[in-house]
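Hey,
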Amino acid sequence: MHLAEMAMIRTVPAAAVYLALTRRCPLSCAHCSTESALNSEQYSAEPFRNLVASFTQDNHPQMIAMSGGEALLRADLVHDLAMTGRLSGVRSYLLSGMYFARDGRPIPPPLVRAIGSVDHFAASLDEFHEREVSRRDVFRALHQVMDLNQDVSLQLTGRNEDDPYLAGLVADVRREFADRVPMLIGYVKPTGRASQWMAEATSQPTSDGPADPVPCDLVTWPLVTFDGTVFGCCNQDLLEGARPPHLIIGHAAQDGWPVLRERFLGRHLLRAIRAFGPHYTRARFGDGCAGKGYCGTCVGLNDQPGISAKIQSYLESPSGRVVEATIRDLMEHPQPEDFVRRAGATRYSDLVTLGWDGGRPPDGRLPDLVGTGSRSAVDASEGSSCAD
């Protein structure tokens, strides 16, 4: 599964679900949005297992995206979720901070088993990670992963488009892997640990002007956070602190995918945020103000009297149905580079397609996996458990 295929479904609501398997991480990166540490809390694995077990061949997301913290601290869980999901046709993605590459040794067998079970492996690398794990060690370990016949990518973070560190890192990656490894580029935001040292303010001033519709990509894939709570938004740093009721759609220990998907796609307030963004939603259906900050406005939408009823009335009207359908149609059929451009990394948007042959299924869906075998021989290998 190439990174470009994933980028094409990134704006399709409920096409995938994020699984934050643990807050724990052996690294202490200065920009960590979840402020993870090795002694951070870790909850039961059962909510994640229950959710993936609830997938059926007729009702399932196209992909699960596993991260943390460091998801590979729960290597057996990663393997089991990937293999269980595959039974119903679900592909899997794994993001790692590459802590295991620090010593220059081969990848431990339990991690080989977990990495080999997923359909795509992504490694994080940036100036903050490099203080913990060197670029040389990450490259070496990524070559080992590619030797498993594994699809890989790099998730790189810079300070802005003109960051010379980022430009040099991109050049090194392209040279090292001969343009066979695609890259997803992002920029540091003042969240988590980064909020302690970034000069930028974490919110924007209130706007007195008219609010324009700005569809929100953060509410296209739900997030199962560390304790099993399921959010309709993937801004984990914000949600862990605020937990606004309108963005909580259930708990994975009790609610299966069919129920969660129905709530996620059917809740009128989420539909409005998804199509119009929080500023326009508040200005049009709330008190008429544009609000303070994009995400800050969203958190406060639940406090707007009668907003859900107003949104429902509009979305169920003939004009509302046409407008919503038109916006979603524009959002859900992008080229792979489009999502990266909207996220701000215009200069590097083409890197998401490196090594891709350009093929895509006619309906925009990832190929079904039901009835296929394991990704590689390591799926059947024996290995001791990591922390679970």
